[in-house]
Amino acid sequence: MYIGAEEILEMRKEYMFPCLGYFYQNPPQFVEGKMQYLWDVNGKKYLDFFAGVSVISCGHSNPFILEKTVEQLQKLQHVCNIYLTQPVVELAKKMSELFNMHNLQGIKKSFFVNSGTEAVEGALLLARLATNKPKFIALKGSLHGRTYLTAAVTDISMWRTDPFLPTETVIFLDTANYKKAILQLTKILESDHNIAGFIAEPIQGNAGIITPPDWFFQEVAHLLKKHDVLMIVDEVQTGFARTGKMFCIQHYNVVPDIIAYGKALGNGIPCAGFSATAELADKFTKPSASTLGGNPVSCATALAVLDYIEQNNLVENSQILGDYLLKGLTNFKFDFIRDIRGKGLMLGMELSTSEQVDFTIENLKDNGIILGRNGINRNILAFQPPLVITHDDINFLLTTLEDTFAKLQKRQ
Are 376 and 141 in contact (CB under 8 A)? Predict the structure, then answer.
């Protein structure tokens, strides 16, 4: 029996930490999901255009994936990765093949964990162990996680909640001007020889779908190689067909030394990891483990996710539908739209104010569409739907969004 949204809000207030926020003035209680759709406790249907922040890329309760998950659950659920199981090595092999297939040759060995934060933490630790150097270079506007080390390389102030994060080991590049950022990076690398690695999201999701120019990471990679500094790419939000490539870094024709990933890999089942070249991975010899990371259920699910992406051409689908969505959004003529950016089905629309975004997502929700929001100033609409959406879904979104913007225009 469902208790309803009001009771859930009361119970959250009484029994849960207040740091956990939620969307909407009148949030619905979701009770069911099928592919690109959600239903609330009252039976109302919604088109999900946010996918749990790029998690449900293959759709809610995808029958193909669910079958493999349940099948594994009925056989072996957990023994910890200190014991031998087959799904984890099959997933490691599949990831190596995937990197090779998608022009990221050389990345071969993997370590699996539960979350994107853990994956990035492991990637950073690997860089330190491999280089015996302490420092990192990150980008302004970054969000890499909420553990001690990942929060340290996170720039967005709302996620730097620990008042005692280290500041002496992280240098942030100001990317307001990418040419100047390259000059700043050059000076840092020439003067500081204690840099273990450079870390970046190919597209900064939480910062507002901030999308660097295509040349940027190539110049970064050239400088890093020149100074023997490792390149770490955080694909937690951008990976697995989200941007019209299997991995977003492919858009920039760059092969990183270490890559971290998560979210979409498990399609809602906790699964993440970090991978590196064999040369780097083999330097991680100190004991490590993850109690639940790489468990049989999450790995079986991830293998099914990768099969589903391949069999249903979701990489190509993301590019085709992303172009279609982008064209539709670009056709809007409202004076409060400041910018539209992104790649594939990871697009952001910048409005003038956060209040305009508040009105928009609330109105869309009332009309049966769940849309995301992000940005440093919380004024970005985030379009990150399941990759199984259709042209009709996009048309419904565009029509409803245009009606919403017309209402918003009248309020100005």
Answer: yes
pLDDT digit string (tens) for 17-43? Answer: 998 888 898 899 999 999 999 999 999
Report the alpha-carbon angle 218-222-223, nearest 5: 120
Cα–Cα distance, 401 to 62 (Å, whole number): 27
What is the arrangement of strands in the sheet containing 369-370, beginning at the earlier edge strand? 30-34, 37-40, 45-48, 369-370
**Amino acid 287: pLDDT:** 87
Task: Give the integer Cα–Cα distance in Å for 209 and 263.
Answer: 16
Q: Are residues 264 and 305 in contact, defined by beta-carbon separation less than 8 angstroms? A: yes
Confidence of residue 161 (pLDDT cuts 50, 70, 90): confident
| Structure confidence at residue 158 (pLDDT) | 84
Give the position of tokens 């670009």.
330
- Segment 192-201 shows an average pLDDT of 97
With vertex at residue 162, the alpha carbon angle to CA 15 and CA 18, rounded to the nearest 5 degrees, is 20
- Global confidence as pTM: 0.95
User: What element of type H or E holds 217?
Assistant: helix 216-226
In order of 10, 64, 67, 180, 263, the CA distances from 71 in angstroms are 37, 11, 6, 53, 22
266 burial via Cβ count (<10 Å: 0-12, 13-18, 19+): buried
User: Which tokens is 89 given?
Assistant: 């090595």
Tokens of 275: 């991978």
Helix H or strand E encompassing 126: helix 116-131
